[in-house]
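Per reviewer request, we include the raw input and output of the structure prediction for the construct analysed in the revised manuscript.
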Amino acid sequence: MSIDAHASEATHITVEVAYATPDRQLIISLEVPVGTTAYEAVMLSKIAEEFENIDPEKDPMGIFSRLLDGKGHPTPAEYQLLALDRVEIYRPLTIDPKQARLRRAGRMKENKLAEKNQPKASVKD
């Protein structure tokens, strides 16, 4: 029997549910019935028990960085998972990306000025 024939007869698929904080990342692999939604997989994974700040009812979710927002893509409760999909639960940004870039640029400028103002070591014969 071909691989395609096995896939069409499958009753379960393997998927992953992922969440990360600056300190910790967790990816849970699980077998779910064909037709399971992204939201259902998050609930089945029990990942919210590992991180107190996960709220599956409110937190945005996506599949491999593709936001399930109900606009360009279905919502997590609508999207039926495919084999090997990874559901990602997104946490809010702690700082506006523009502000982060400005801070980095400011630190780089300060570092360059500090290097420029350091006295140069002279080499004597």
